[in-house]
Amino acid sequence: MARDAIEENQIEDVLGRIHAMRSQEEHNVCRDYLTSLVDASCRTALVDWCYTVVNALGFSRETVGIGTSIFDRYLSSGQGKSAEALRNKHQFQLAAITAFYMAVKLHEPVQLGIHELVRLCRGLYEKGAIVEMELDILHSLKWRVCMSATTPLEYVRHFMQLLPMSASTADVILENATKYAECAIANLAFSACRVSAVGIACLAGALHDTEALTSLEKESIWHQLATKVNFDIASTETRKVERQLLPKSKCREPATQKRPSLSQSTGVESIGEQPSSPISVLERTPWCKATPVCQC
Fold first, then answer.
1. Were both Cys, which of 57, 78, 121, 158 would link to 293 (CB 3.0–4.6 Å)?
2. What residues does each domain of the chain span?
3. Using CA atoms, how far apart are residues 18 and 234, in angstroms rounded to an integer?
């Protein structure tokens, strides 16, 4: 269905949400916390492990981005036991797994219980250690974990709601943007940037890759977006992110396959439909039972 005419009240609503998201961005910016012990390869291995898990369980790949944001913010905070996690690979990995677990609770409509998480880790971490780490992350971030739910793709979705285009074109753009967003997640450097700047860069890359639009149509989209939002979409930071991100577009392929239904892929009912005796996610997903926790 074409969205050739967008009502004024809808535009105001979307702009209000974008403004609210941007007002929280200063709490999301991270620093380069990596050391010679826990380096970029360790972080990349854990991000890849999370993607393996969400693919196996039929979760949204965007959940990995949320978990990675929580993880990066925690290790950048200098609070709680975050410094210890940077001196100990075992704790570093625990922090990543716990942040992912928190993201699942925030973003997914199904339950991944802590006992299932322990089994997913093949017993490397006990329930008490995960609970303790979750509390330390919450206190270190002053309970502001929901801010990590604002991802680059969330900005892309909001930007597209401001633009008249067909639903099919919007789907293609979002799929192309996913490729860039996952590249950004894989690189800590982009966690030091405003999420909105990364989102704009993802949209720029996606538009460039979208063959369904002519060059004039792409220019028109940028002009319309620039006149509607109340911030500079061509800022120095955004341009810097684009220069760094767009050449990396081949680091990950977008998830083109249709996401399986949760009932088919995991056998877990939605939270509101859970039976009195919850069914283990892992029991319903034999492949994942053989997936060991990542060793960075």
1. 121
2. 8-22+150-251, 34-148+260-289
3. 16
